Amino acid sequence: MKGQTYIIVTVVFALIIAIFAVINVEPVEVNYLFGTGRAPLILIILISVLMGVVVTATVGLFRLRTANKEIKRLRSELSGENLDPSTEFTATNSLDSGEKDRQ
To answer: Which of 22, 45, 48, 59 is the most buried (most CB within 10 A)?
Structure first.
């Protein structure tokens, strides 16, 4: 259900941007760092949205990559590959020591 909601919201957002862009077709003056120029406002709107999508996707992919590395690291720790058996700590040991402290 979450995936369907995401797709519906994305389509609605894309339609709103498309309608807004089509309504604004007159040429406007654009100031760049190195000069100025004239371009249709529809083109400016669509390029701005595209740049926003690219930046958002890049940040999302970076976060996903970082999360996947962390998951892989934690799974390897959980499987015992990186743990020294003499220093292994279990939840039952933690509960036992907590109960002893209270008594």
So the answer is: 45
Could you tell me the two tokens for 97?
A: 């020591």
How is residue 74 annotated by DSSP? H
In sequence order, what are the beta bridge partners of 36? 31
Q: Which of 65, 63, 88, 92 is nearest to 78 (CA)?
A: 88
Task: Quote the domain boundaries for residue 36.
Answer: 2-102
Local structure of 90: helix, strand or coil: coil
50-66 pLDDT, tens per residue? 999 999 999 999 999 99
Q: Which two tokens stand for residue 49?
A: 């949205």
Q: How far apart are CA 14 and CA 16, in angstroms?
A: 5
